[in-house]
Amino acid sequence: MGAHACERIGLSSRPGCLSAGPAARRNAMHELSIVESVVEAVTETAAAYPGARVMSVKLRVGVLAAVVKESLEFCWELATVGTALAGAALVVNNVPLVVHCAACGRDAEIEGVQNFRCPNCGELAAELRQGRELEIESIELEEPEVGSESASQQVSESVGNA
Amino acid sequence: MTTRIVELRRGILKKNDELAAELRERFTRAGVLVLNLVSSPGTGKTAFLELTLRRLTQAGAKAAALVGDLETDNDARRLAASGAPVRQINTHGICHLDAEMIGRHLDDWAGVELERLDYLFIENVGNLVCPSSYDLGEKVRVVLLSVTEGEDKPLKYPTLFNSADAAAITKIDIAGPCGFDRELALHNINEIRPGIRIFETSAKSGAGLDEWLAYLAEQRKVLKG
Chain B window 137-156: which residues touch A at a Cβ cutoff of 8 Å? Predict the structure, then answer.
């Protein structure tokens, strides 16, 4: 499939490289690009909350999004180490297939990705309501208490710098 | 310290998605129907495309093709014999085409103007995994499956098959010797992508090409309309 992602970005000697399984490491190029976008979006959002620290980031990833959870987790580690997001957890929630069944007139969740048949009536359902998502659901921030000394210090710092 | 949850529900657009959206807009403005052909290596994309380009060129349509391979320009040479403008993209190890490669190869393609084309075919690198993650700005994604590959291929690669707009079964001239189970293959394609248009073709005999060309003309009308 081409050079292992770690070698390509010059990281083959990093300990983080060895903690993920071989498949996650080998196929990580695509997920690296996704993680870069997440880091950008999270950094931008967190900037609106001065003094806050990002504790975790929750993603929703559809089963048909063509994204490997383990590769995302591996790339997150690499991309955030040494940055303001270092230590923040990436929580990846897999989102199942939901189709709209024209025969039943209802939405139904489908287990797995081996068929698109309505579990209620057995008809094939072409309309996908859910399953291709790739989004940031929420960000968990830890903020200093309002009214505490450190908080008022930070507030006055940011006001001073405005 | 207090905890705050900031709800975002924000789509993650990676760089390729942004570039693909730009390409899509560019193609729509230029009025050219763009197709992305995906399949395993050896399914017969090039032979299928070769015959398609010949037939279109003979009928007076303006078609061009970009073809992706890790190495060699063998496919571009074969396709160019049809008389259509063809350009090779060599990825040198990357297992899929992406929007940046498409944009770059369109930008300095001497003698080809998108506005003057009716059709642009993109033959992807043979691979049923990674191309599903890389939008090329196409209007129609066609997945090809040959009679030699096994009827359960769609079940093994659901992400790509489900993302396709049309499917073409290839090499039907040797379906018999392969023991190809046509009903099962059609069934499995439909399980993964209900209602998808399926063409049954042979580049050797020309079978199924009329229906495929009619589909192309129909899609072009939709684009213009």
Answer: 155
Q: pTM value? A: 0.86
- On whether any CB of chain A is under 8 Å from the CB of B94, the answer is yes
Percent of chain B with pLDDT over 70: 100
CB-based contacts of A98, cutoff 8 Å, min separation 6: A107, A108, A109, A110, A128, A129, A130, A131
Find, among B150, B145, B206, the residue nearest to B178 by Cα: B150
**Whether the predicted pLDDT of A27 surpasses 70:** no
Largest CA distance in chain B: 73
**With pLDDT > 90 as the criterion, what percentage of chain B qualifies?**
95
CB contacts under 8 A, B 4-63 vs A, are 4-16
Q: Predicted ipTM?
A: 0.83
Tell me if B2 and A143 make a contact (CB, 8 A cut-off).
yes
Superfamily of domain B15-224: P-loop containing nucleotide triphosphate hydrolases (3.40.50.300)
DSSP A146: T
Cβ–Cβ below 8 Å for A136 and B10: yes
If pLDDT is split at 50, 70 and 90, which confidence band does A145 have? confident
Residue that is written with structure tokens 């129909």 in the block: B218
Q: Enumerate the domain spans of chain B.
A: 15-224
Distance from CA of A18 to the nearest CA of B (A): 23
Q: Domains (ranges, CATH) in chain A?
A: 5-96+131-161 (3.30.2320.50)
* Chain B hits for A137, Cβ within 8 Å: 7-9
